[in-house]
Design a protein that fits this description.
It contains 16 helices and 9 strands. It has about 350 residues and is α/β, with parallel strands linked by helices. The radius of gyration is 19 Å and the shape is globular. Helix 2 runs antiparallel to helix 4. Strands 1-4-5-6-7-8-9 form a 7-stranded parallel sheet. It has a single domain, classed as TIM Barrel (Alpha-Beta Barrel), CATH 3.20.20.210. The protein is about 50% helix and about 10% strand. Homodimer. It is found in: Cytoplasm. Keywords: Cytoplasm, Decarboxylase, Lyase, Porphyrin biosynthesis. One of its GO terms (molecular function) is uroporphyrinogen decarboxylase activity. Catalyzes the decarboxylation of four acetate groups of uroporphyrinogen-III to yield coproporphyrinogen-III.
Length: about 350
């Protein structure tokens, strides 16, 4: 049975434009909060394949999306490379010993050894392949090397990225060594997700906007392209989605290139710009402002506007970033239903 989401990634005909949401398995669902409480904490939930599979499936049953995205976290990679990770309530992820020197980097494991430690992720995928409906796709994912590197250098989330950028400008060779080590792990990590059963993979560059456009290719995009190329060369039947958040100027200058299938458009980038510059080469995904979900009227208006622009061709509905924890579930259901109603052919 064909999967509507995979068909859309490859520009095949679909009965309507498929839809899913970033962070669709999350805190806005009471069912998710119940499972998370059972797990004890967020990291325990990521490490428990049974429970991670349960929360991955919840939005399909409750909200009606067309694809499941694996429940995990981008920071499991540096965690398994040897960095001690904790999620502090109200503060987010923290690494107890951030990377400060080449010795710190050298102490971390890489390549096959690191990718092989993420067994709980692959087990979750195997469980999901048995339980997901045949027509629903499973999306695997990773953080981009630059986004992961910022957490590893800063030790936590940051608004300034000053430690990461200090290395970028004062010691670029060292930053490239960090990005190289991450890239080599990520290639194998995504490959193992595919071998476990992922139908699609997405690379998130959540902190793309932290890099000035003139340096974005050097310190992020070229590594993402290398990862995508590795996957597409070995697994051409697997769609690859790229999602760099906050780089409209990079798109405007015609700097997006590479062997991948779908470009995720964030809410700060006009969909018309993405269509003009990228729509002939890549399927576009997105890009409703997530806060529109607080209003059903604002949601419908945006879905109609995107549909009028894209005309159901080369497009996947999604938010322009993740759904927020206090969005009413009925509003998320409304978004999904409107996407299907308005785009039905």
């Amino acid at each position: 049975m064909s999967k509507i989401f995979v068909d859309a990634c490859f520009r095949r005909p679909t009965p309507y434009t498929p839809v899913w949401m970033m962070r669709q398995a999350g805190r806005y669902l009471k069912e998710y909060m119940e499972v998370r409480a059972k797990a004890g904490n967020f990291l325990n939930l990521c490490h428990n394949p049974e429970l991670a599979a349960e929360v991955t499936i919840q939005p399909l049953d409750i909200v009606g999306v067309d694809a499941a995205i694996l429940f995990s976290d981008i920071l499991v990679i540096p965690n398994e490379m040897g960095m001690d990770l904790d999620f502090v309530k109200g503060e987010g992820p923290k690494f107890s010993k951030p990377i400060k020197s080449e010795a710190d980097l050298d102490s971390l494991i890489g390549g096959e050894e690191a990718a092989s430690k993420l067994t709980y992720v692959y087990e979750t995928i195997k469980i999901l392949k048995q339980r997901l409906p045949e027509d629903k796709a499973l999306i695997g994912f990773t953080g981009a090397p630059w986004t992961l590197a910022t957490y590893m250098i800063e030790g936590e989330g940051t608004k300034t990225y000053n430690l990461s950028k200090k290395i970028m400008y004062a010691n670029p060779e060292f930053l490239h060594k960090i990005l190289r080590k991450l890239t080599d792990v990520i290639k194998l990590y995504l490959e193992k997700q595919i071998l476990a059963g992922a139908d699609v993979v997405q690379i998130f560059d959540s902190w793309a906007a932290a890099i000035e456009p003139a340096r974005y290719d050097e310190f992020s995009w070229k590594y993402m392209v290398e990862i995508a190329e590795y996957i597409k060369n070995k697994y051409p039947h697997i769609p690859v989605i790229m999602f760099p958040k906050g780089i409209p100027s990079f798109i405007e200058r015609g700097l997006v290139y590479g062997n991948f299938d779908v470009f995720g458009v964030d809410w700060g980038t006009p969909m018309s710009l993405a269509k003009e510059k990228l729509g002939s080469k890549y399927v576009l995904q997105g890009n409703m402002e997530p806060c529109r979900l607080y209003s059903k009227e604002a949601t419908t208006a945006c879905v109609e506007a995107i549909q009028n622009l894209m005309q159901g061709e080369g497009h996947i509905f999604n938010l322009g970033h993740g759904i927020l924890p206090d969005v009413p579930v009925e509003n998320a259901i409304h978004f999904v239903n409107e996407c299907k109603r308005i785009s039905k052919k």
